[in-house]
Amino acid sequence: MRRHIKDMINDMGIVVLYGPLEAKGMYVDDYRAIILDNNLSEEEEEMVLLHELGHAARQSGEMNLYHRTRTMQAKAEAEAEKFMVAEEVRSYIHEYGTDDFSAVSFLENNGLPTNFETFVKRMLA
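Below the sequence we write its predicted structure tokens.
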């Protein structure tokens, strides 16, 4: 696992647990815990961890709203995805810089939805 992800987990006081899940992962706000499916590849694990850390960072204490309506759930999932994409972009730029950086190529090469293109371009503006 990359160091900056470990640091985020420690800084946020999150416990990471592994077990058989139907989903890839889940954040349990009451316990400040992320539970990951134990069948994820290392790459999947990092992406799911970043997504779930997005829930912890953006929605801690508000997870009751997550279950209230599908709209609130969709909004929370979108925020967690943006958090994950932003962290992946920051990590890439820290390592490789912005020369010849293409938002679409970055998203495609990392298996991320290309509908985040505008979001990534705004990050770099």
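The chain has a mean pLDDT of 93.
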